[in-house]
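User: I'm putting together notes for a lab meeting next week and I want to include a structural view of one of the chains we've been expressing. I don't have a solved structure, so I'd like a prediction I can at least talk through. The sequence is below, exactly as it appears in our construct file.
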Amino acid sequence: MFKGPDELELTSGDIGMPLFWLSLPIVITNLLQTAYNLVDTFWLGQYSTTALAAISFGFPLVFLFISLGLGLSVAGSVLVAQNTGAGDERQAEYAASQTVMFSFVLAAILGVIGYFIVEDLLRIFGAEPATVVAATAYMQVISLGLPLMFGFFVFISLMRGYGDTVTPMVVMFGSVVLNIALDPFLIFGWWVFPELGIEGAAYATVFSRGVAMVAGLAIMFAGHRGVQIRLSEMRPDLDYAKKILRIGVPASVEGTGRAISVNALLIVVGGFSTVVVAGFGIGIRIFSVIFLPAIAVSQGVETMVGQNVGAERVDRASIATQFAAKWMFILLGALGVLIFLVPRPIAAVFTNDPAVVDVAASFLRYVALTFGFIGVLRAYTGAFRGAGHTLMAAVVAVSFLGFIRLPVAAALAYGVGPATISLAGVTLEVPQLIGALGPPGIWWGFIVSNIAGAAIAYALFRQGRWKTGDVRGPAGQSPDNEADPTTEPSVDD
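Assistant: Thanks for the context. Below is the predicted structure for the 493-residue chain, given as structure tokens.
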């Protein structure tokens, strides 16, 4: 049903079908990955409203911790893609090996830090006391399991850079089946298992992703499918680390900017009732599922642009990006119209509480008609990353989320003014500039930022600076290249 890297020609010939076959397994992989969250949301929604609210605070924190480190996997993916496009397989393998090693180290550090700070973060976000207790229990288990989760995400990124998106999909499928099987047993205490509530969902997620990580590492060490890694090439190479960080830090800024904006938005949402928080959490989960095609195409564009930049075919990279942006706008726009018409039945799948359903349906109805703009934004930022301009992608993410969505949502939800300001003995009366809209004000923040983000990404793409993003640098750095006289030099040698 799917096509592997040997059947896909990404640097010549047709664009549409290779991009489709590259992206389709990513759609399914991301859908399966989101199934972790959806299954947790479903079972915890049956368990209690407090658990559902706790998971609404917990998911953005998971996103934050993962985003802090996944920039390294993006760097590995870009380096693998560009070296693969240039025909330098050994450098692609060396990049993959170094990425795996540095990612594990960073994940362990973040996990320990996260274990001790999650409770304080949750209090800052304004969660109610009962929600703080439940969300802390969930997040502490997740924090200690970060190395296992990181390992699997790195596997997915490196294989994608090589052009193999099918193998990660298969491994993810097995992992999701395991998680689905474990969730109700650990949450409700079925059969011989203890009733762990929200902690049970965390244990199920960490265990199943750990199994997937072991499978992914075994596949890469074997090297029969996709990129190969070698234990001998995992010795820390500080010079190569600088290259990875140069690409990966902006990618982490992009992911972290997204995560921080989502978490900061929880402060805005947390000012309302637990029902609003729970409804918003369901809306965001549905929101994430709807954008799986956009995220998949963005990652497919990242790989295609990376390989074409490595092959010095920048014009083809540009055409592929424009093709993806156009079709994402059309397809997600049509999906948005459908969601706009029937939001309540979708929201009702996740909870029996009619008040929570009302909030989630309201959120979906407001934002649905801007889905097409997110598709455009994702296509262009995927091109920026693939070309090695990860800082450009970070600028787009931070701009539309941090400087547009968050302030607009806060201003419209709570209003601006009236207020009394005293400065240097002078008292100023500020009239009411914007009336408080309540939760719909938050929904309007999404509308404005989605449209603005697409406009910013398009402007940067048209500017053309992304075309100068070959990040491979000097080749021949791996031990095998130095030792093996039969290894052919790359054009950079």
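A couple of points you could mention at the meeting. Strands lie at 419-423, 426-430. DSSP finds 17 helices and two strands in the chain.

User: Perfect, that's what I needed.
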